[in-house]
Each structure stands twice: as C-alpha cells, then as structure tokens.
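hey
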C-alpha cells in the first residue's frame, strides 16, 4: 500500500505537506503511511483514494491485506486459517445477496398477518387441518412429478389401502411413501432440526421400493466442457451439499422463514443431488422449514400452468420469482385453511 500512496502522490505532483493540508492530516503521518511505519484508518484510505485518484477497491484491498498479515503472518496455521475464513466469508456474504422487491416484501407482511389468525383459530382444529393439507399436498406434489392419480384415488390408496385399476405400482408407492415422508418431517418439526442425514432419510422414504439408489447421491454429474459438449465427471455433490448446509446454518436465523424455505428448496433443485425424486425432496425440505416456524404446508398447485412456471423459474435461475411463487402458495394455503375453520 505504501507504494500505491507514494506513486499516487508523485503522479499528482503533490508534496506530503500539501496532501496533509488538504486532508487535515499531520504531515508526519503522511510520510509514515508512505514508508509503511503507520497504517491509515479506513476513513483516511477513502480520502486518500479520492485525492490521489487511486482506485478505491485496489487501495482498500491492499489496506485489508496488510491488516490481515499484521495479525496472522507469524502464526503456524495462518494459511489454513485464511482458507477457512474465505469459505465462511463467502457464505456469510451470500445472505446479503437476497434483496426483497416491494411486491415480495408486501406479500410476506400479508402472510404474517394471516399466520397470526391461523395460529389463533387453528388451535382446536389443528389435526383436522393438517390431515386435509397433507392429503392435498401429497396429491399435488406427486402430480407435479407426473403421477396420474386423482385426489380421490390418492385418498383411497392412503386411507383405505386400495389398489387403483390402471395405475402403476410406482404411482401407488409414491402416494404411500410421500405420506410417510410427511410424518418424518413432522417429527423433525418437533425436534426443530435439519441436517444431511435428515435429507438422505427424506429421499429414502419417497423412493423406497421404487429406486434402489434411494437415500444416496448421484455418482456423476453432467457439465459442459470448453467446447460446450456435455461430459460426465465424478460427482462433486457431497461438497455442494456440505455448502448447502453451511448456508442453512448461517442464514436460518437471519432470513424470513418463507424466504429461507424457498431458498433451501431452490438451492437443492439447482444442486440436483439425486437421480430421481429431487423435486419431491426439495418441497418436503421447504415444508419442514415452514412447519418448524409455525406456518402451514405450502401446497404448490400442479396444474399445467403452475407446473410450467415452477420449472421455468428453476431453469432460468430466477430466485426472486421462485420465492414469490412459494410465498403466493403459502398465502393461498393459509387463506384456505382459515376459511375452512370459519
């Protein structure tokens, strides 16, 4: 940094006393800044960058580097500490990338008003509401992924154990398995916890008897090479999932629960850690977080228009649009259950 300051002053044709006078800093300090004997404050760095026409980012980066080196350069594990700090900073910064639009902020406030009403009037009807919402949710979530059973057929399979003529064994298992997975996330709701083992358990439950790789990650991941050809590489999914949970731990108490749930849903879909069942797993993770925070199940409708929007938002990496879709789904669910109770 000292070289940047001295070169900048000389290129401007200024003497140290002139810089000191303009900035209201003692001349001896300017000399010490340029010799490296003293470090300017952050405010002084900003003033020096402006006066000497030095790029602020370049100067503040040099200032921060020297500040860090001063603290750790003689430490045995300095490099390891820097790597760890870099990873943590990356995930701490990620929360600040989520900026809510006016429309999203408005619907979150509307949802929280509804949630207050829901909590008050659902106390004596909670289990009846939850039972109805679970059935609707199983039907819509399975239909989102191609299951052709009607709501009534789904109910007959789950509640009466019947076999529906013309429907595949997979479709029957999807209905039963999804209901089991809902029971599991309700248990997690009581414990108010979520970790990688829970994630794998959710996936295992929804694909039990359907896919032999239930509860395990894909072995390879398709990526584009320099020539834009799709190539299969050894999976880095374990690292991506590790990062996913680091992000969760950092942000779980900082974000609005709707935003947290939507982001965890969205991020898991982008990782796409499983061969099959990513959508159902991501929606279950989302609703587990909503239930843990006192909200109702957000039931994303699976009609052709909503289904198309849902997939387009993920494909286009439209995180804000996706958050709004989830918020709208939660609002509609709360409105429905409040009206049902009335």
């Amino acid at each position: 940094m000292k070289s940047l300051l001295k070169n900048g002053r000389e290129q401007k044709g200024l003497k140290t006393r002139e810089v000191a006078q303009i900035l209201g800093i003692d001349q001896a300090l300017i000399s010490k800044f340029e010799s490296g004997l003293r470090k300017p404050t952050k405010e002084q760095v900003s003033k020096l960058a402006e006066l000497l026409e030095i790029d602020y980012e370049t100067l503040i980066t040099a200032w921060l580097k020297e500040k860090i080196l001063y603290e750790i350069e003689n430490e045995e594990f300095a490099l390891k500490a820097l790597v760890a700090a870099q990873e943590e900073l990356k995930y701490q910064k990620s929360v600040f990338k989520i900026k809510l639009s006016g429309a999203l902020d408005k619907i979150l406030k509307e949802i929280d008003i509804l949630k207050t009403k829901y909590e008050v009037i659902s106390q004596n009807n909670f289990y009846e509401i939850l039972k109805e919402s679970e059935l609707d949710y199983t039907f819509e979530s399975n239909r989102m992924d191609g299951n052709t059973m009607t709501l009534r057929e789904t109910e007959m399979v789950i509640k009466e154990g019947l076999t529906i003529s013309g429907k595949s064994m997979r479709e029957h298992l999807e209905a039963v398995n999804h209901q089991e997975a809902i029971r599991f996330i309700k248990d997690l709701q009581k414990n108010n916890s979520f970790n990688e083992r829970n994630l794998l358990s959710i996936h295992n439950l929804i694909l039990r008897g359907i896919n032999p790789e239930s509860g395990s990650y894909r072995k390879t991941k398709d990526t584009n090479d320099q020539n834009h050809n799709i190539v299969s590489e050894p999976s880095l999914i374990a690292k991506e999932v590790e990062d996913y949970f680091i992000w969760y731990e950092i942000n779980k108490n900082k974000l609005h629960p709707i935003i947290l749930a939507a982001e965890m849903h969205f991020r898991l879909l982008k990782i796409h850690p499983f061969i099959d069942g990513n959508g159902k797993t991501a929606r279950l993770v989302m609703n587990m977080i909503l239930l843990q925070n006192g909200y109702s199940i957000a039931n994303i409708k699976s009609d052709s228009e909503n289904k198309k929007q849902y997939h387009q938002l993920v494909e286009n990496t439209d995180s804000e649009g996706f958050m709004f879709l989830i918020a709208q789904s939660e609002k509609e669910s709360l409105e429905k259950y409040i009206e049902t109770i009335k």
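The CA atoms of residues 68 and 195 lie 33 Å apart. Residues 95-341 form a domain with the Fic-like fold fold (CATH 1.10.3290.10).
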